[in-house]
Structure formats: structure tokens, C-alpha cells
Design goal:
alpha+beta, 4-stranded antiparallel β-sheet, 5 helices, 21% helix, globular
């Protein structure tokens, strides 16, 4: 069982986009999640669970390689369990070009009233019923709807949204076996105020919104 005081592990991974397996994973959120599971004890094999209490969250970004200063695909991965990223290269040599891991203690940041910057890549959807009473999830496409969605999330997650910019929005498609999954995603950058530290800490650990196993929901905070 995890608590709000349990430290988190935040990893930054540099994938080798010229590696066949890594290149495929960068185009498939489902395949990428399956690969990341290999870094956790016993979770790499199909139908085996992540360690007890684990909620693996990740987000795909592009940053500059610290060695070459060139834009390179980067993954931020948040986990409760200490990851073993060497296991990915042991399974498939050259998959990762490098990685670093640091431990996060959220306690000092989650002070009531504190203002923090954030980034969130989320699956922005709502559930609606049609005329026949059938319920289905729908993507939100207008910026004002997307920002209202984020404001509602804040009310549930223990923060007050002070403002946010939409820096990227669109559809992502991925396959899970024969099933085609379409995600409506938005990346937000903004500022929030901590209102309920316990609720916000829990939301950071569990992620916001849906499709958390497909690269959505990781809420990153900074001073």
C-alpha cells in the first residue's frame, strides 16, 4: 500500500530512435507501455501484474540530449517501485541510449496555498448518453472545453487551476492486438495552487483522467 509520503521514482529515458524496436514503440503507446514493464520485477511477461501498489505513469517528450545537444525522444516515467532500466537493454541491446533516475519527495511541495507550475498530457474526454441511453466516451475538441475539463480535474484532485496554455492537442491511435484505440489528447502547461495536499498527492501518484497506461495522466510539478 502506498501513501502520500511514499517517495516516487522519476526516470528520464533517452530512446535510440534508430533502434528498430524503440522506433516501433515510439509510434505505439500500447507497445511502449508493454516494454516499460520489463523494468519492474516479474512484470515484463504477458498477463503478469506490476508490483503491488505500482501505478506506472509516463509521458513522451522531446528534449535536447545532454551529450549532443540535439533534439531527442525522451520519456518521463514515474513509479513507486525502483526501476531497473538496464533490463531493457539486456533484453534488447541498444534500446536505450541512456537514463537517469531520481527520487521525489512531494511533502515539501504540497503545502496548502503554494503556487506551482505543472505540465500534464491527458486523455481529455467525457462520458455522454445518446438518445437510446447508450453511454460512450467522447473526446473534447474545443480549447474552452478542454480547459473546463482541466478545471474540473483540479476540483477533484486538490488544486485550484490558476491558468494553463494548450501546447499540443490531437488524436493518437494505437493498437492493442486487433483492437484499434483512439485517444484524444491535450498537453497543458500552467500554474496551480495547492488546496488539498493529500488529494493532490494521491492524484499525482495515480494520474489524472483516463488512458494512464497509454502515456496520459502524469502530472509534473515544478516551483
Amino acid at each position: 500500500m502506498t501513501t502520500v509520503t511514499t517517495p516516487l521514482h522519476l526516470s528520464r529515458l533517452f530512446l535510440n530512435d534508430r533502434h528498430r524496436h524503440a522506433s516501433r514503440d515510439l509510434g505505439s503507446p500500447y507497445a511502449l507501455h508493454q516494454t516499460l514493464r520489463w523494468a519492474f520485477p516479474g512484470a515484463g511477461h504477458p498477463d503478469t501484474p506490476l508490483p503491488d501498489g505500482e501505478r506506472l505513469l509516463w509521458r513522451q517528450d522531446t528534449t535536447r540530449d545532454p551529450h549532443t545537444d540535439q533534439p531527442t525522444p525522451t520519456l518521463l516515467v514515474q513509479s513507486v517501485t525502483p526501476p531497473d532500466w538496464g533490463a531493457l537493454n539486456a533484453r534488447d541491446e541498444g534500446y536505450l541510449q541512456g537514463w537517469d533516475v531520481r527520487t521525489l519527495d512531494l511533502t515539501p511541495a504540497l503545502m496548502p496555498g503554494r503556487v506551482l507550475h505543472f505540465r500534464l498530457h491527458a486523455n481529455v474526454t467525457v462520458r455522454r448518453r445518446d438518445e437510446q441511453g447508450h453511454s460512450a466516451r467522447h473526446g473534447l475538441h474545443r480549447p474552452e472545453e478542454q480547459l473546463e475539463w482541466l478545471d474540473r480535474q483540479g476540483g477533484r484532485a486538490g488544486f485550484n487551476l490558476l491558468g494553463a496554455d494548450i501546447i499540443r492537442a490531437g488524436r493518437i491511435r494505437t493498437r492493442k492486438g486487433r483492437q484499434l484505440i483512439t485517444l484524444h489528447t491535450v498537453t497543458f502547461d500552467g500554474a496551480l495552487q495547492v488546496m488539498n495536499p493529500e488529494a493532490l498527492g494521491q492524484s499525482i501518484r495515480e494520474g489524472l483522467g483516463h488512458a494512464k497506461s497509454l502515456g496520459c495522466g502524469l502530472l509534473s510539478l515544478a516551483p
